[in-house]
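Folded chain entry
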Amino acid sequence: MSKSSFAAVIEQHLPNLAAYRDLYKHFHHNPEISTLETETSARIASELRILNEKHSSPIEIKTNIGGTGLIGIHRNGDGPIVLLRADIDGLPVEEKTGLDYASTKRMMDTHLDQIEKPTMHACGHDFHITALLAAIETLLNAKNSWSGTLIYLFQPAEERGAGARMMLDDGLYTKHGCPIPDVCLGQHVWPHKAGNVFSRSGAMMSAADSYEITIFGRGGHGSMPHLAIDPVVIASHIVVRLQTLVSREVPPDETAVVTVGSLKAGDTVNVIAEEAKLQVNIRSVSEQWRRVLLDGLTRVVRAECDAGRATAPPRIVRLNQYPLTYNDEAVTRRVEHQFTRFFGDRHKLDMQPVLGSEDFPLLGSEVGRPYFFWFFGGHDPRDYDERVRLGTVNDIPMNHNPYFAPCIDPTLRTGVEAMVIAALSFVGKDRAGQQPKL
């Protein structure tokens, strides 16, 4: 399809976004934390049913996949099978944006620690949901402009790196009858200039591996350390030594981060604890150096425990694991070509890899299919330009921040346009009614 054809699809078939702005505010005001997105999932299913009734649509809706996950299968003639994904969970963060639709919700985290927590859409998944729903209506309106099968997938629990795996393990492509896609597509809002779209081939988002490490010592009186084995000292050496994995074992031109986010031991000042616990997060953008870091973690922990005379081998437990998001080159170039033709200089190519992580790749890699993942900006364009002028861009609240508040316009429209264009890159017809081959 030419640029004019893409523009025509958007111009003729994009629905009035006023209702979707209100829907976005609803989702933002009513977030639900990972694995507990019951009301969110029900509202999405309701919106899909409304679209079916409005358009006499054949979208087949399947719910309760891997918990609160759901899909809509939209068959529209012969052609490629393309999966479009949006994640739906919020975060245990107390919102401080001051928006009139800000979340004041609290939830009992019954799937993790039984603690009531403030809840916020602090990562923009409310935009992802709303943009995909509006894209679905656009594609329904434009059904004569494309041919194939589109899978609209709404995934829970991305923030715990579990939702894609939960849906797959529950038989997404078997028991629930989801066709195996030829390609998977997904997007993410982030605190850059709204109206812009960002992409790259290859490593797009880092792999992330998180562990809890328990160090075993011998408790005792703080005045007699020679009769105890202090796990805090051992843990402290581990914290320092782990930093050398990046500075001394990974090449300077590679990107990697090792963070000890938690170190806990003891309850009072004059007692040497029995054990210490560390929580470690490792991020990398290549499988080669990911393996170096993970092997190094185990080596360092065991060696420091031996050096400190720990009373038992350390216990190393994986908390979560996110795959490396590595955009397929052919798929990326295909969508990027269409993004550039539509967005012009608002499409930013070859962005730097993002050290956040996603479980989206599993939806494709699990069945040997390629995928493409991109970003779209969410910060007010005028304020962003002024911050560039003042050198304060880094002060913009980022994802997971309690002040994270993307502007609705033009963020929502850009997210809808990008998802529609990406889908049409594979299922869209040219002016002669022909489809390019995958």
Summary: The two ends are 14 Å apart (CA to CA).
